[in-house]
Design a protein that fits this description.
Elements lengths: L14 E6 L6 H5 L10 E5 L4 E6 L2 E5 L13 H7 L11 H11 L3 E5 L12 H19 L6 E6 L5 H13 L4 E4 L15 H10 L3 E4 L16 H8 L3 H12 L2 H4 L5 E4 L6 H15 L11 H8 E5 L3 H6 L8 E3 L13 H9 L4 H16 L8
Parallel strand pairs: 1-5, 5-6, 6-7, 7-8, 8-9, 9-10, 10-11
Antiparallel strand pairs: 2-3, 3-4
Helix pairs in contact: 5-6
Amino acid sequence: MGAMSAGPGQKELLISADSHVIELPDLWEKRLPRGFSERAPRVYFDERRQNWMFGSPEVPPQAVGGLFMAGQRPEQIENFRKAGFSAARPGGWDPVERLKDMEIDGVSGEVLYPSLGLGLFCMEDAALQEACFQAYNDWIIDYCKGAPARLYGIGLISVFNVDHAVAELERCRKAGLRGAMIWQAPHKSLPFSSDHYDRFWAAAQDLEMPVNLHILTGHGPSMHRQTLAGIERYRRSVNQNEEIANALFDIIFSGALERFPRLKMVSVENEIGWIPYWLAQCDKAFERFRSTAPLTIKSRPSDYFQRQVYATFFNDRVGGRLLSWWGVDSCMWSNDYPHQNSTWPRSREVIARDLGSLPAGDRAKLVRLNVARLYDLDLPTQA
């Protein structure tokens, strides 16, 4: 089952640009070195909430049930929160079982991100975060060995200390991971507009490791979404893309992509329907103010985006309609398996709904060719 194929009866090869593992509940308790193990983030049952949770003194508590609800109805969320890992599909942590679920969905390859590990980007202690990320990276390296031609891991990188970040980036590259993930909402002392990141950007460019910014990571308001109630919970969901918009704004307008023209950035799970309008506003501001408030960038913001930024989508009807005139070279389909929002096990139905009107060549870019080019994946001669 290790070789990539389109699957029995499937004509169009699909590669998901954003899928997830489910880390073992005791991963950090077992793998952190002495001195950190007592502070390890862990899964536990909260008697007051009657839910299985994940967290630590450094990580806000998060209910875990929605992480393994692929194919289930939203109203079942409380049952999954109470059942915890006993209700989870084992493909999250078992690559053999994962390949079976990929066959059900008709998916040939998946780029893999964490689930529990998303919450660790909000840690304030750099040394603890580094240890947690190294433990995860060791685990995901082993996980992908179960099917290296079909499972493509992304390493987690702490960027408080750039020397450490570069060293861990090099280790991940050498071990076969396909990219690096850093926080989407940076620490307030380290905005993306600062030159703090330059040596990391340079290393990522030289190593040809795309830098991935995933939804719900870092020090933004989304980390406290599960404590919100009433209308505020809805507001946070509707306005979720403001964190990635701020990140990309700082990276583009501060000149990072000008200084590092071969650096590749990826917006992950932030959908795409909002991006064309946002880029138009960026270009409008650039043309309006460049003579009175000069910048270091020489081209329009949209030019840098089209040259160096990719974005994933998985259930975006608006984005699907806009792809007829924008984004076919920089957007990438994903299934978000095994999370609650996942299109599994009906990904092909959603692709037909959102991309069915596109020419076959454009659709091929979106569902496999763009992701293969970005992460240097081998594809069969024919899909």
